Structure formats: structure tokens, C-alpha cells
Fold this sequence. Notes:
Elements: E1 8-12, H1 17-28, E2 32-37, H2 40-47, E3 54-57, H3 63-74, E4 81-84, H4 99-124, E5 130-135, H5 148-167, E6 173-180, H6 186-199, H7 203-211, H8 222-232, E7 244-247
Parallel strand pairs: 1-2, 1-4, 2-3, 4-5, 5-6, 6-7
Helix pairs in contact: 1-8, 3-4, 4-5, 6-7
Amino acid sequence: MSKLTGHRAVITGGGTGIGLACAKSLAAEGAQVIIMGRNLTRLEAAARTIPGAEAIQLDVTDADSVDKAFAAARAGGEIDILVNNAGIAAAGAFHRTSIEEWQRIQAVNVEGLVRCTQAVIGSMMKADYARVVNIASIAGLRGGAYIAPYVASKHAVVGLTKSLSLEYAHTNATFNAVCPGYVETAIVDNSIANIMAKTGRSREDALAELTKNNPQGRLIQSEEVAEAVSFLCSPLSGSVSGQAITISGGAI
């Protein structure tokens, strides 16, 4: 029997990249996985690559959508693992960042995470087993030029993780954050394209600008992040809570 057999896991932003890698990793350990995201067609295609997976449409910025999605997920049993992966990023000078753009990033990266966590916390407080893993970033542990809204949002995620680990320490729930460096995903592809457009650099030079932040000189792979998430969801991680675990090649 695999270590997560009998557990049900929700992964937000589960259709691609880190979220999909996490879903595959947790399913390989025996969990029944439910992937959520805005693009239902993409989610359903991703779910077909994971035995027994479900796909449920979700917009983390919409309270009704969150309520409906988690109600649908609970139709098959309580959720005892939540991976908050849904997130967005943007780059630009702080003095040119509108309050609307600032709020757009916080709405997904912070408020969306809060909504999803509140959707399961009631049952998790009473459960024999519960795990919440928040996908943050090394940007949640240090500053970064031209990404102030994103940095602020990920600092909020790390702070919330630490607070919840203490508030619910008397329960069987743990709360941890995983903080990767630049991961080879669509978000990083967008960052590379943005650097190219704004600076006129080649793709190779734009990629080098990102990989220089990793002492190993490379992008992180989604599967590396998923491996850490899988451990934090496992039975042997019960004493690990309130941590911000970096996956950055030694950058932090």
C-alpha cells in the first residue's frame, strides 16, 4: 500500500507546470487527486494522464466558484491534502505599477489561497490527518527588483503559512511553504519573453539572466518541487510545520 492511499488531495492550478507535477507525484503515492483551475479543457486533458484523477473548474478570485468547486470535490469524501499552487506573476517598475495591477496579483496569490484554505480548514481541524502545502517562491524570502507586487504576495504566503502552523498546532494539520527559484514553466517562459521584449536580448541571454540567480546555473524542474511537496504531504512529515523550504540550488 502506498503511503497516501486513502487520502484525497486538491491541487489548485493543477493543469500545468508545478501543479500538474504535484498531482502526478501525489497520485503515484496513492492519493486520489482533484486538479482545479480556470481552463476546464486543459484540466480534463491533464486529468486523463493521471489514473483516477478528477478535474474541477475553479477561479480562486471568485468566492462562489471556490464554494462550488470544493463542494464538488467533497462529494467523493473529505479533502485532507491541499496544495495551493494557483498563482500569477508580472514584472514592471514599481512607480509604473497601477493599484489595479497590484490588486490583481494579490487577488490570486494571496486572497485566492486564503479562500481555498478556508474551504477545507473546518474539516481539517477535526481530521486525523491533514496537510496544507503552499507554493510560494524564494521571492517570499527576499526582495526582487521589478517584481514588487509578486514579492509582496509571496511574503504574505510565507507569513500566513507560519501563522497557521501555530494557530492549528493543536490539530493534526500541518502547514508548510515550498519556495522554488525559477522553475521551467510557462510563467518563466513569459518572463523570458518579457526580458527579450523590453531589452532586445536574445532568448539565450534572457535565460542566462534568470539562471544566474541559481548558483547551480540552471532552471529548477517542476518534478523537483513536486518531490518536496510529496514529502510534506506524507505521514513521516507530521513534525514538519511552519517551514519555508527552498528549492533554489543554494540561492538561499
